[in-house]
Specification:
The chain has about 80 residues and is α+β, with helices and mostly antiparallel strands. It has a single domain, classed as Glutaredoxin (3-Layer(aba) Sandwich). It contains 3 helices and 4 strands, in the order E-H-E-H-E-E-H. It has a 4-stranded mixed β-sheet with strand order 2-1-3-4. The chain starts with a strand and ends with a helix.
């Protein structure tokens, strides 16, 4: 599973990354988590508001940090 957390580094972006890491650890899934901070790279992924979470190419969340419950549901 490939997870991308997009955001320049604001507080909400850090929160999104933290929540995703916690959920992956809790669910014990095999996933790589990549933090993308470059706006050009983020735009290429079709995301124009941050933070955003992309799992296996699917945009799951844009413009807010997801809850751990949301991330756990996406990981199933």
């Amino acid at each position: 599973m490939e997870i991308k957390v997009c955001g320049p580094g604001c507080a909400k972006c850090h929160e999104a990354e933290r929540v995703v890491k916690e959920a992956v650890a809790e669910a014990a899934v095999d996933a790589t988590i990549e933090k993308i901070t470059d706006f050009n790279e983020i735009a290429k992924l079709g995301v124009f508001s941050t933070p955003a979470v992309i799992i296996d190419g699917q945009v799951k969340c844009v413009g807010k940090a997801p809850s751990k419950k949301e991330v756990l549901a996406w990981l199933k």
